[in-house]
Design a protein that fits this description.
Helix content: 25-40%
Order of helices and strands: EHHEEEHEHEE
Number of strands: 7
Strand order of the largest sheet: 1-2-3-4-5-7-6
Bound molecules: coenzyme A
Structural class: alpha+beta
Length: 160
C-alpha cells in the first residue's frame, strides 16, 4: 500500500466523506443524512467532543473515515458510530488502519471496550468478517431491529 496517513477529520474532508458514503452503496439516504449530521457535530466538537472523527488519506487523497464516541452513562464503554472506506480504496488495509486508530484513541481516553452495531443482512457479510478479523467478538443480536428481516448484530472488543 502507498502512503497512508490517519489524522483528525477536518472541515475540508466533508465533500469526500459525503461522496464515499454515497458511493460505497452500504447506506440508505437516511443513513447518509445521519452520518453527515454526526460529522458536523464531530467537526464542531473536535477530538474532545462527543463524536471524534478520524480521516484516512492515501497518497494525499481522503479515502476513509471513522467516528467513535463515549457511550453516555457508562464508565468506560465507547461506540463506533461509523466507518467507511471509499470503494476504490477498500481491501488495502485502510479500514484496519482506521479501526486501529479508533482503538488507540479510545484507550488513550480511558475507554475499556468498543462496541459496534451493524446489520445482519447478507450484504454486510464482508463488513462483519472485517470486524471479526480486527478482533471483535459477536456478543448479541436483535432480530428485525432495523426493519423486518434486518437484524442488528452487536460486536465488542475489550481494550484493557
Ligand atoms: C468495512 C470496511 C470499512 C472495511 O474497510 P477496508 O479498507 O475494505 O478493510 P481492510 O482492507 O482493512 O480489510 C478488508 C479486507 O482487506 C484485506 N486486507 C487487509 N490489509 C490489506 C492490504 N494491505 N492489501 C490488501 N488487502 C488487505 C483484509 O484481510 C480483508 O479481507 P477480507 O476481504 O477477507 O475481509 C469497508 O469495506 C467499507 O467501508 N464498507 C462499506 C461501509 C460499511 O459497511 N461500513 C460499516 C457499517 S456498520
Amino acid at each position: 500500500m502507498g502512503n497512508l496517513k490517519i489524522r483528525a477529520s477536518l472541515r475540508r474532508d466533508r465533500k469526500a466523506i459525503h461522496e464515499m458514503l454515497e458511493q460505497c452503496s452500504a447506506f440508505t439516504a437516511e443513513e447518509v443524512r445521519v452520518a453527515l449530521e454526526i460529522l458536523a457535530d464531530g467537526l464542531a466538537g473536535g477530538l474532545d467532543g462527543d463524536y471524534p472523527h478520524f480521516t484516512a488519506e492515501l497518497e494525499g487523497r481522503v479515502c476513509g473515515y471513522v467516528c467513535v464516541g463515549k457511550t453516555p452513562l457508562t464508565h468506560g464503554t465507547w461506540h463506533e458510530y461509523w466507518i467507511c472506506v471509499h470503494p476504490d480504496a477498500q481491501g488495502k488495509g485502510v479500514g484496519l488502519a482506521l479501526q486501529t486508530q479508533a482503538e488507540v484513541f479510545v484507550r488513550s481516553r480511558g475507554g475499556e471496550r468498543l462496541v459496534i452495531e451493524t446489520s445482519g443482512r447478507s450484504a454486510y457479510a464482508r463488513t462483519r468478517r472485517f470486524y471479526r478479523q480486527a478482533g471483535y467478538r459477536r456478543v448479541g443480536l436483535i432480530r428485525d431491529f432495523y426493519r423486518p428481516g434486518d437484524d442488528c448484530v452487536f460486536f465488542c472488543k475489550e481494550l484493557a
